[in-house]
């Protein structure tokens, strides 16, 4: 049940990404927490806290990618679209972004700012969906 490599990965849900494989992990090695954009919100803080405190992970890897759908809208545009669809705006933001590396850094800061997550070992990456290159965000 415990990830063998003690790593939790937060990654975008984009179908072109196989986050564990890209990072060189096998089945059973890591937790993979996915969402639109690969951003860290309260939902990911919850999963990361459970991953660390109940299931023993110690390192966090964040993975976002080029050509992400979340680069192509704004929170306001998405809220308007929801309002047209549902007659009301959502209580949550879409968490769109226009700067990939800055978005990775913002997620890092969210983790570092959470009292519930050990943030000593957090690394962020951008995956290039065209070249297959993985670049660390420092
Ligand atoms: Zn994406």
What's the SSE blueprint?
Elements: E1 7-12, H1 19-22, E2 30-35, H2 42-53, E3 59-65, H3 75-86, H4 100-113, E4 122-127, E5 134-137
Parallel strand pairs: 1-2, 1-3, 3-4
Antiparallel strand pairs: 4-5
The chain binds zinc ion.
Plain-language structure description:
It is a single chain. The chain has helices at 19-22, 42-53, 75-86, 100-113, and strands spanning 7-12, 30-35, 59-65, 122-127, 134-137. The model has no long low-confidence stretch (mean pLDDT 97). It has a five-stranded mixed sheet. It contains four helices and five strands. It is of the alpha/beta class. The longest helix is centred in the last third of the chain and has 14 residues, at 100-113. The site of zinc ion has 7 residues, from loops.
Question: What is shown here, in short?
Answer:
This protein is α/β, with parallel strands linked by helices and 138 residues long. The protein has helices spanning 19-22, 42-53, 75-86, 100-113, and strands at residues 7-12, 30-35, 59-65, 122-127, 134-137.
Side by side, the strands of the main sheet go: 2-1-3-4-5
Number of helices: 4
Strand content: 15-25%
**Main sheet properties:** 5 strands, mixed
What is the H/E order?
EHEHEHHEE
- List the ligand species: zinc ion
Proportion in helices: 25-40%
Number of strands: 5
Model regions low in confidence, pLDDT < 50 over at least 5 residues: none
Q: What gyration radius follows from the Cα positions, in whole Å?
A: 15 Å
Key terms for this structure?
5 strands, alpha/beta, 138 residues, five-stranded mixed β-sheet
């Amino acid at each position: 049940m415990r990830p063998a490599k003690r790593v939790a990965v937060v990654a975008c849900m984009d179908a072109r990404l196989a986050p564990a494989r890209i990072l060189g992990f096998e089945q059973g090695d890591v937790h993979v927490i996915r969402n639109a954009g690969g951003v860290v919100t309260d939902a990911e803080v919850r999963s990361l806290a459970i991953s660390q405190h109940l299931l023993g992970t110690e390192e966090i890897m964040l993975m976002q990618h080029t050509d992400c759908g979340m680069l192509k809208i704004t929170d306001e545009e998405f809220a308007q679209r929801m309002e047209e669809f549902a007659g009301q705006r959502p209580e949550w933001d879409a968490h769109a972004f226009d700067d990939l590396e800055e978005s990775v850094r913002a997620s890092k800061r969210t983790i570092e700012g959470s009292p519930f997550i050990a943030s000593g070992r957090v690394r962020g990456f951008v995956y290039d969906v065209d070249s297959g290159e993985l670049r660390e965000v420092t």
